[in-house]
Amino acid sequence: MADIPYGRQSISDDDIAAVEAVLRSDWLTQGPAIERFERMVAERCGARYAVAVSNATAALHIACLGMDIGPGDLVWTVPNTFVASANCARYCGADVDFVDIDADTFNLSLDALRAKLAQAERLGRLPDLLIPVHFAGQSCQMAEIASLAERYGFGVLEDASHAIGGSYGGAPVGSCRHSDAVVFSFHPVKIITSGEGGMVLTNDPALRQRLLRLRSHGITRDAGQMQGEAEGDWCYQQLELGYNYRLTDLQAALGCSQLERLDAFVARRRRLQAAYRNALSDLPLRMARQLPETDPAWHLLVVRLEQPQWRKPMFDALRARGVLVNVHYQPIYQQPYYRQLGFPPGLCPEAEAYYQRALSLPLYFDLSDEAFDRVIAAFRTSLSEVAS
Ligand SMILES: Cc1ncc(COP(=O)(O)O)c(C=O)c1O
């Protein structure tokens, strides 16, 4: 029997045809598919602008730069996320700190944020930017975060790498209603994929212009942005130090085709999530509490086991049975790179308690009902062995 991964892409004949059409066209990169993908995502999410880049890590990096994050600045995020959510600040030379998570939603804790802000105000070191992460596809409580941002004067960049297709307060994740910008990832395990790929959404025209420049070497071809007179139509100007963070048209075409399938992807993920809740409801574990104002896209299916000593044997037993579970996430500050920056153990107790008990089970569009039943059977057998 084939192994069952925790996540994987779904590629249809239409997806393949969309990529093939680009291969037969004049533009493999810097062509029309990029703008089409950007327009489609912006429209779908109700944001004014979208800027496509090579991956979400690049998106987070240029979003931070575009929001003028640099040396001496302070960026806060959560520990329960992929390292890219914090690394983007380090790329800009900024300092990073971590806000603990909520034990029930596994997302940023508003209580922890409020307490940390009050303390930071007393110490005179408030953050310049907060990066809330919509863990596993469920939006953070953005209205409350936005009002704290207003009160304390920090920017908000949503890391929605897990969350395209979800909604918060009746609006799609990505609308930027409560933030300066939102980032999506299109890595193959995510909800839609372009192979690699990322996007920054914003409603701010000046930020959009800056992002367009930063993704392409800091260069502009827009006469309105150039310094002095252009010598001729061949001229471009490099106005700042940017990067080659461009997406290709091959990737963008795949992204467009996948976006057409987003509703179907999310519907299946929601059905599977509900089926997991039902099938595991009598066991000593819990899953993320869903807040009434959110309708998550559910990128990950995380169970939090009651006892930390069960996690490793469960991981090993399930893998031995061909169920390739994973763990999301070890608190970022436990990574050696962050430890050597001075973050102490115990910094975020809820994130640490969560990590010791967390297991991600298979969740993806093409997970069949038979494979789902196999996962549940393997899980129940393994837990009865491990917890006995
Ligand atoms: C929360 C989060 N942020 C950022 C990233 C980085 O995404 P990418 O692989 O597209 O650079 C990931 C990828 O796993 C992620 O899970």
Task: Offer a concise description of the structure.
The chain has about 400 residues and is an alpha/beta fold.
- The shape, in one word, is globular
Structural classification: alpha/beta
Note the beta-strand portion.
5-15%
* SS field, number of helical segments: 13
* Strands side by side in the biggest sheet: 2-10-9-6-5-3-4
Distance between the termini: 27 Å
Notes on the structure:
- The chain is of the alpha/beta class and 388 residues long.
- Helix content is 39%, strand content 15%.
- The chain contains 13 helices and 17 strands.
- Strand 5, helix 6 and strand 6 (155-159) form a beta-alpha-beta unit.
- The longest helix has 18 residues, at 262-279.
- It is globular and about 80 Å long.
- The mean pLDDT is 98.
Write the layout of secondary structure elements.
Layout: E1 4-5, H1 13-23, H2 32-45, E2 49-53, H3 56-66, E3 74-77, H4 84-91, E4 95-98, H5 110-123, E5 129-131, H6 142-152, E6 155-159, E7 167-168, E8 171-172, E9 181-185, E10 198-202, H7 205-214, E11 219-220, E12 237-238, H8 249-260, H9 262-279, E13 285-287, E14 294-295, E15 301-305, H10 311-320, E16 323-324, H11 336-339, H12 349-357, E17 358-361, H13 369-386
The protein binds pyridoxal-5'-phosphate.
